[in-house]
Amino acid sequence: MSEQFPALRALTEIFHYHIHVYYDETSRARAVKLHALIGERFAVQLGRFFDQPVGPHTMAQYEIGFFADQFAQLVPWLMLNHFDLPILLHPNTDQEREDHRGSSFWLGQPVPLLLERLDVSLIAAGHAEPRAVTINSTPTVQA
Fold first, then answer.
1. Is 51 exposed, middle or buried (0-12, 13-18, 19+ CB in 10 A)?
2. pTM
3. CA-angle at 72, arms to 114 and 113, nearest 5°
4. Half-sphere exposure for 24 (CA within 13 Å, toward CB)
5. Domain spans of the chain?
6. What is the per-residue pLDDT across 29-50, written as a single tens digit (0 to 9) for each?
7. In this predicted model, what pLDDT tens digit does every residue of 76-94 receive, in sequence order?
8. Which CATH architecture has domain 14-117?
């Protein structure tokens, strides 16, 4: 018997990436500091703070959007500087639920997600593509 493998997916399916930084009342100051440090060092979209659960996220968090050109610097920097905060990194493709589930990885302790709140396919749900990322930071410090 030969094992069946899923079809390979193309890198061109990835529009951009998201990082979700999770925090609670005891770690919010670290999350705020990390938000500022990322914006000083990387060309990213700095998202707003959600102090209550929203969407599939079961605790407070903010989102950082970025393009592939930042990946090789931003992700290793976060590996070393995530301030012991839980961080989810995922691609943004048409497959929103899989992006957050099987195509993602965590730094720190994983946080439960409500995956049923995400579309299996954005196109099937009537969306052309994931929400756009608009860079709103101006890096002034070298990572």
1. middle
2. 0.89
3. 5
4. 6
5. 14-117
6. 999 999 999 999 999 999 999 9
7. 999 999 999 999 999 999 8
8. 2-Layer Sandwich (3.30)
